[in-house]
Design a protein that fits this description.
With 253 residues, this protein is α/β, with parallel strands linked by helices. The chain has helices at 43-50, 81-88, 106-117, 122-135, 151-163, 181-196, 208-214, 232-237, 242-252; strands at residues 3-14, 17-28, 32-36, 58-63, 66-72, 75-78, 91-94, 169-173, 200-204, 217-222, 225-230. The strands form two sheets. It has a six-stranded mixed β-sheet with strand order 7-8-9-3-10-11, sandwiched between helices. The protein has a five-stranded antiparallel β-sheet with strand order 2-1-4-5-6. The N and C termini lie far apart (39 Å). The model has no long low-confidence stretch (mean pLDDT 93).
């Protein structure tokens, strides 16, 4: 087991606003990293940069041994587009708002990218999709459309869609923020099961108990910096920094 993610000194600004200030993160293969912090702390931007939805200003990022960008003369220099695409295939991202195609059936939502990106034949793509839907307890909804599903079901479809492309590491950006408590439990159970299967994952979440129970490592971000990081039991049970204590306390009151 080696390092799956090595991120060094990542910086990102939007105009005058410095959103990420020299962030460094590493994650071992097969481990789960939870990232907590208030809104606007830079958590989602970091995920968007790792999954190539945003460009970094400076820093170095290596995913599963492949460098996406490195810091040269104070700027992030990206590898060529072919290599960027190859590295992108190592990552999967599950959004908070599901991002399913409303005019595609559940099955087609999961097969489309497999056929377009991985050039899998339809039959193979559908076989993989059905086995993932079975795993998500949704095999009977293959022919349904997103509008016919609950929020929890939509999120499970989006997890299946991400898994169908065989990513090396799966990113979750607040996967339960649009769901009520019952549906939240449903999604957290799926993520826990993936953790038991040793799927490498990064989870941005407000679910403190889940983060404490499921993560191998946890990070608290605020104001574009990592305020505190460490083993979940330490970070949640015995935080050192006053800012971390205050944030965690606000969830238990």
């Amino acid at each position: 087991m080696g390092k799956m993610i090595e991120l060094e000194n990542l910086s990102k600004s939007f105009g005058e606003l410095e959103v990420l200030k020299s962030i460094s993160v590493s994650l071992e293969e097969g481990n789960v990293l939870s990232i907590i912090g208030p809104s606007g702390s830079g958590k989602s931007t970091m995920l968007r940069i790792i999954t190539q939805l945003e460009k970094a200003d400076d820093g170095t990022l290596t995913i599963d041994g492949s460098t996406l960008f490195e810091s040269i003369d104070g700027k992030a220099r990206y590898v060529d587009l072919v290599e960027q695409r190859n590295i992108l295939l190592k990552t999967g991202l599950v959004f908070q708002q599901f991002n399913l195609f409303p005019h595609f059936s559940v099955l087609r939502n999961i097969t489309e990218a497999q056929m377009a990106v991985l050039k899998r034949p339809r039959e193979e793509a559908e076989e993989i999709a059905m086995s993932l839907l079975k795993k998500m307890d949704l095999a009977d909804r293959a022919r349904s459309y997103p509008f016919q599903l609950s929020g929890g079901q939509k999120q499970r479809v989006s997890i299946a869609r991400a898994l169908a492309l065989n990513p090396k590491v799966l990113f979750f950006d607040e996967p339960t923020s649009a769901l009520d408590p019952e549906l939240t439990r449903e999604i957290l159970k799926v993520i826990r099961e993936l953790a038991e299967e040793k799927m490498t994952m990064v989870v941005v979440t407000h679910e403190m108990n889940f983060a404490k129970a499921t993560s191998d490592y946890a990070i608290f971000m605020d104001g574009g910096v990592i305020v505190e990081e460490g083993e979940p039991n330490e970070l949640f049970g015995n935080p050192k920094m006053e800012r971390t204590k205050k944030f965690i306390r606000s969830f238990s009151e």
